[in-house]
């Protein structure tokens, strides 16, 4: 009997060493979760009930339990390196088979899909417009490799200050080539529907009436109808046009693009002091853009950035959680699969319910405490040696009995 009991102890210590060795081997594996060997005692139950003074029949390995504690967050320079701070798993699709991981080292394949090192595709909720996402079923996250389409200018905002002590120009007949026919001018680049840039120039001409200015607008040297008067109150604030908007007639760029139909917004215009100044100048159009990079915010929204200064949402990362993460089936490559013991996957979004936040440009390190594992290795080694000594002692006793004359 002592041989069998000691042998079970050897097997238990050997299993403990195997689990410890695997933890130590993966101390630098991104997203790795350590395991712990758990044991239970064994009693031989026969036809008679086991008494309280029974010696027992040894030990058995009852479970190798995964420990899903948070690993340290290590920062990197790659925007597609992702780490989860808190609970949850990234959702991956391997040829339609869903699996889950905490290892967020992702890249882009030749088709633009975001994948891990094994080629499994990262899942995200598609963008539904207006900052909303279709959170029904996640799809493969794919980066747009095409150009960002242009947008025609519809409004130009001029934050200017016109001198309050200005006098009407010497030449009363406006001529863009004659500086004596206007007081001040400023220009802004505007875009047509094909993304081509055009220069819009606004001329300011002091009217004989107090606090009143006339304007002229030209695009590429062609006068655009619709420019009119702007008037200021006695405190220098804009009085008209009401609301600050001055609609212009359409301008044909002559390139096959649609007419540029825009308004000039003078809401921030003032008439103070004796100096002309342009405090701000902006417009809402932009040209064609090429993809320059990708960023992911803490809620998992993936943005594509373009050379035209624009960004577009490509989707929102899907996260999964389980009632019993320790019941997940290990698939290798730091990935897990759903099982009966884990329960069904609960899909959601970062920063909601029980899901953690996402850190872009970072990876979650292994949660293995190397010092603790080395201590555990020594303990398992001592246990193995003690059980081996027990077998040696039992053998000596047996030999003694056999040698009785």
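-> sequence recovered:
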């Amino acid at each position: 009997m002592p041989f069998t009991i000691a042998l079970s102890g050897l097997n238990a210590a050997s299993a403990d060493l195997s689990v410890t060795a695997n933890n130590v081997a993966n101390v630098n594996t991104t997203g790795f979760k350590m395991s712990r060997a758990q044991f239970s005692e064994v009693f031989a139950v026969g036809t008679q009930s086991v008494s309280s003074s029974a010696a027992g029949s040894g030990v058995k390995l009852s479970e190798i339990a995964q420990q899903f504690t948070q690993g340290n967050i290590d920062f990197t320079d790659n925007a597609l390196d992702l780490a989860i701070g808190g609970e949850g798993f990234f959702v991956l699709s391997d040829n339609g088979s869903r699996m889950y991981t905490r290892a967020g080292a992702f890249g882009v394949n030749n088709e633009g899909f975001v994948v891990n090192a094994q080629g499994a595709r990262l899942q995200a909720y598609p963008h539904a417009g207006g900052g909303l996402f279709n959170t029904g079923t996640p799809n493969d996250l794919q980066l747009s490799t095409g150009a960002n389409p242009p947008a025609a200018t519809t409004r130009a905002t001029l934050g200017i200050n016109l001198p309050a002590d200005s006098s009407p120009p010497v030449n009363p007949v406006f001529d863009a080539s004659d500086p004596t026919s206007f007081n001040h001018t400023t220009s802004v680049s505007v875009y047509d529907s094909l993304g081509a840039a055009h220069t819009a120039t606004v001329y300011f001409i002091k009217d004989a009436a107090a606090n009143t200015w006339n304007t002229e607008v030209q695009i590429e040297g062609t006068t655009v109808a619709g420019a009119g008067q702007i008037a200021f109150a006695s405190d220098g604030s804009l009085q008209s046009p009401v609301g600050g908007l001055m609609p212009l007639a359409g301008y044909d760029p002559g390139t096959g693009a649609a007419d540029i139909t825009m308004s000039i917004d003078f809401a921030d215009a003032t008439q103070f002091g004796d100096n002309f100044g342009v405090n701000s100048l902006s417009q809402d159009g932009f040209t064609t853009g090429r993809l320059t990079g990708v960023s992911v915010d803490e809620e998992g929204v993936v943005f594509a950035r373009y050379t035209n200064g624009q960004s577009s949402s490509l989707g929102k990362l899907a996260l999964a959680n389980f009632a019993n993460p320790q019941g997940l089936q290990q698939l290798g490559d730091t990935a897990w699969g759903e099982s009966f013991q884990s329960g069904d996957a609960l899909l959601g979004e970062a920063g909601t319910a029980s899901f953690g936040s996402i850190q872009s440009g970072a990876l979650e390190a292994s949660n293995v405490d190397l010092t603790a594992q080395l201590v555990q290795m020594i303990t398992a080694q001592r246990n193995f040696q003690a059980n081996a000594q027990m077998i040696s002692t039992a053998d000596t006793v047996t030999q003694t009995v056999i040698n009785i004359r």
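The two ends are 23 Å apart (CA to CA).
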